[in-house]
UniProtKB/TrEMBL annotation:
<feature type="region of interest" description="Disordered">
    <location>
        <begin position="50"/>
        <end position="75"/>
    </location>
</feature>
<feature type="compositionally biased region" description="Gly residues">
    <location>
        <begin position="50"/>
        <end position="63"/>
    </location>
</feature>
<comment type="similarity">
    <text>Belongs to the CAPAB/TerDEXZ family.</text>
</comment>
<feature type="region of interest" description="Disordered">
    <location>
        <begin position="179"/>
        <end position="201"/>
    </location>
</feature>
<dbReference type="InterPro" id="IPR017115">
    <property type="entry name" value="Tellurite_resistance_TerA"/>
</dbReference>
<feature type="compositionally biased region" description="Pro residues">
    <location>
        <begin position="185"/>
        <end position="197"/>
    </location>
</feature>
<dbReference type="Pfam" id="PF02342">
    <property type="entry name" value="TerD"/>
</dbReference>
<dbReference type="InterPro" id="IPR051324">
    <property type="entry name" value="Stress/Tellurium_Resist"/>
</dbReference>
<protein>
    <recommendedName>
        <fullName>TerD domain-containing protein</fullName>
    </recommendedName>
</protein>
<dbReference type="InterPro" id="IPR003325">
    <property type="entry name" value="TerD"/>
</dbReference>
<feature type="domain" description="TerD">
    <location>
        <begin position="1"/>
        <end position="169"/>
    </location>
</feature>
Length: 406
């Protein structure tokens, strides 16, 4: 029986040859995509010769090989054969990645990744990705070793920075990722659809105009992608650098307090691995941790707007996990990018207090649906109080807090 997985979930797979495949619906206006497998070592880098795809020969005696492209009906498939018992011992993970040409994965419908037996007759696991937006590179899923066996993880991590961002995250030069295969069969040609209406321009929230209705911007369904990016203060120089106390890298954590229409309350955050779920309550999911703040990366959180009426309020916030005592000098920008409708963006004010937590945006129910309020509010916890507790008290959430780690 097929196991349909949520983003970030994992499942054991038999230690036999399997097929790892990416599927999508082709059609007019849909960007083409192509895949590759990355063979990763224990240090998190691609093994020498460990990029399989684009006509490159498979290393390690062919234990991992790209099977090319197939099409049936309106579906396109690219698959990778992985002979798990024969995978070289130094390879810890086999990662299925994809790149989009002349568009983003938000415009690629029906994006699914499956694990089947080698013949493709028996489906072992399926992950349906439905929250991509501006990404042009995508990590679909991975097979990885665990306690002498193998597991599959539904990753679903996108990169708006394309091949360059994907390559950098895996210790590769961008040129090592494959271009579209010359032998790949193009999707069937169909009549071009009518031109889509132009996407509305971005809305910038300010102190004078701090709120906007998502519905009035055309964002009533699909997903709302929330991104925080920042610029870390430059390191000290000269005498200050020689005498500075070493600090760990700056680590900011995006999160959200939520209150549902039925009164259920909770938090989505990296602490305690409370990453949420986009396909079931709380209809909010937090992506993986980022320590760069780059525009194509940063901290990312997604809200399922198909369940707008299930929310009473959502408070998006950021905390400093380590690396700084406050937000001074970070120059942070918040962008809320709905799948449909205009993006909403604003910058944070300069912080002049020793604050480790900032309320970014509050989503509440308005007459037409969710309304975004710019908060940009720095809080200073009292003694023996955590950043999350200070946020809870300021907004009257009423949760019980215990220490947590990530």
């Amino acid at each position: 029986m097929t196991v349909t997985m949520s983003k970030g979930a994992n499942i054991p797979v038999p230690r036999t040859p399997v097929r790892l495949a990416l599927h999508w619906r082709h059609g007019p206006g849909v960007p083409d995509a192509w895949t590759a497998a990355l063979l990763m070592t224990a240090d998190g880098r691609v093994a020498p010769g460990g990029v399989v795809g684009g006509g490159r020969p498979a290393p390690g005696g062919g234990a991992v090989r790209h099977e090319g492209r197939g099409a049936g009906g309106d579906r396109t498939t690219e698959s990778v054969h992985v002979d798990l018992p024969a995978v070289p011992a130094h390879v810890e993970r086999v990662v299925l990645v994809a790149l989009a040409g002349s568009g983003t994965f938000g415009a690629v419908p029906g994006l699914d990744v499956t694990v089947t037996d080698a013949a493709g007759h028996r489906e072992l696991a399926r992950y349906e990705s439905r929250d991509t937006t501006t990404e042009t590179a995508f990590v679909a899923g991975e097979l990885y070793r665990r306690q002498g066996g193998w597991k599959f993880r539904a990753v679903g991590q996108g990169y708006a920075g394309g091949a360059g961002a994907l390559a950098a995250a895996h210790g590769l030069a961008p040129g090592l990722l494959p271009a579209p295969s010359a032998t790949a069969a193009p999707p069937p040609a169909r009549p071009a659809p009518p031109s889509a209406p132009a996407r509305p321009s971005a809305v910038t929230l300010t102190k004078a105009a701090p709120s906007v209705s998502l519905a009035k911007q055309g964002a009533t369904t699909g997903t709302l992608h929330v991104n925080l990016n920042w610029q870390a203060p430059p390191p000290p120089r000269g005498w200050f650098a020689r005498n500075a106390v070493p600090r760990p890298p700056l680590d900011l954590d995006l999160g959200a307090l939520y209150e549902m229409a039925d009164g259920t309350k909770g938090v989505v955050q990296a602490l305690g691995n409370a990453f949420g779920d986009l396909r079931r309550p709380p209809w909010i999911h937090l992506d993986g941790d980022d320590r760069t703040g780059a525009v194509e990366g940063g901290e990312n959180l997604t809200v399922n707007l198909d369940h707008t009426r299930d929310f009473r309020r959502v408070l998006v916030f950021v905390t400093i996990y380590e690396g700084a005592a406050g937000f001074a000098g970070l120059h942070a920008t918040v962008t809320l990018r709905p799948q449909h409708g205009a993006p909403v963006t604003f910058s944070l004010d300069e912080c002049d207090v020793p604050s480790p937590v900032c309320a970014l945006a509050l989503l509440t129910q308005g007459p037409d649906g969710l309304v975004v309020h710019r908060e940009a509010r720095y809080l200073v916890p009292g003694r023996a109080s955590s950043p999350q507790r200070a946020l809870d008290e300021a907004y009257g959430w009423g949760l019980r807090w215990t220490p947590g780690r990530k």
